[in-house]
């Protein structure tokens, strides 16, 4: 996994969190990241895809999350909510990224930004979503 891709996810989670909390325009949030971050350290197109994709597909992403959650999505910690939405977006729309990588990256983001045990919650939820969103890949992986 490239470090630039990892950084793209990290910035995207921060940007999605900002969008969730402040409702700021996505273009303004992206511009802020480009101004404040060294753009050589992350994949700009991947960051932009994640930042645009999560809000565009929000209803679908939250619907995929709902059966795996023990509470309403709005009750989930905002940082973990951003990580879960990003992870589900990647599971659903980035089939070139192996499901194990998606889950692992989300767990690492939760360790970095989330609550103390948040990574366990993120892991469990995304594992359940992956069983639906990537069932063919998971079955092939077990052979």
Protein model, in words:
- The protein has 143 residues and is mostly helical.
- The chain has one domain (3-141): NusB-like (N-utilizing Substance Protein B Homolog, Chain A).
- It is built from 8 helices and no strands.
- Helix 1 packs parallel to helix 3 (44-56), helix 1 crosses helix 5 and helix 5 (78-93) packs antiparallel against helix 6.
- It is globular and about 45 Å long.
- The chain starts with a helix and ends with a helix.
- The mean pLDDT is 94.
First-to-last CA distance: 23 Å
The average pLDDT is 94
Q: In the CATH classification, which architecture applies?
A: Orthogonal Bundle
**In CATH's first tier, which class applies?**
Mainly Alpha
Number of strands: 0
- CATH T-level fold name: N-utilizing Substance Protein B Homolog, Chain A
Helix content: over 70%
SS summary, helix count = 8
State the assembly state of the protein chains: single chain
Which structural class do you get from the secondary structure elements?
mainly alpha
H/E element order: HHHHHHHH
How large a portion of the residues is in β-strands, by DSSP E? under 5%
What's the short story on this structure?
With 143 residues, this protein is an all-alpha fold. 74% of the residues lie in helices and 0% in strands.
